Amino acid sequence: MAFGAINAIKRMGLIPGKDIFVGGFDWIKEGINSIKKNEMTASVGGHFMMGAWGLLAIYDKDFGIDRLKKGNESTFELELIESDNIATYSALFNQKFLMEVDFKRLSLFHSRTQTSSSFKLTDILKVNTADTTKKQIQTKLSWQNNSKSDLNRSL
After folding, report:
1. Is beta strand 42-45 parallel, antiparallel or unpaired with respect to 23-25?
2. What SS3 class is residue 118?
3. Helix (H) or strand (E) holding 23
4. Which carries the bigger pLDDT value, residue 144 or residue 33?
5. How far apart are the first and last CA of the chain?
6. pLDDT over 90 percentage in the chain
7. Which residues contact 19 (CB under 8 A, 6 or more apart)?
8. 3-state per-residue secondary structure call for 43-82
9. What 8-state DSSP symbol labels residue 21?
10. Which of 12-26, 104-118, 121-135 is the least confident region?
11. In this structure, which of 39, 104, 126, 151 has its CB flanked by the most CB atoms within 10 Å?
């Protein structure tokens, strides 16, 4: 519907994102691109975390922790992507990045100290970005050490 509204705004000779603001839902690729072009003002999303929450509820239950029992509530929040924060969320649209997210660390069984867990996407991005940066540094150092060894052998 948001794209239909953007097209109608353009047909009226107006500028979407300037004369009339349009928002969307679901973080689809076209919507994100529309935000980058400043045609769509924002998009709400993050509901896909419900799947992760459900799998963790099953996982924790298997280890005797009932996330659905009072006191073990877990939450996830829908988040708003707009031009001001789109760079923060860009990793979410990279399938490789998502494959590296360690959802197990959100398990109540593995934390042992928390009684609830947050499914806030910005928290997942911060931790995974730090992990990825650490891996990249380790890979670079490993490559540099191997290159030095190769150089020493060739001398």
Report:
1. parallel
2. strand
3. strand 23-25
4. 33
5. 66
6. 30
7. 9
8. EEECCCHHHHHHHHHHHHHHCCCCCCCCCCCCECCCEEEE
9. -
10. 121-135
11. 39
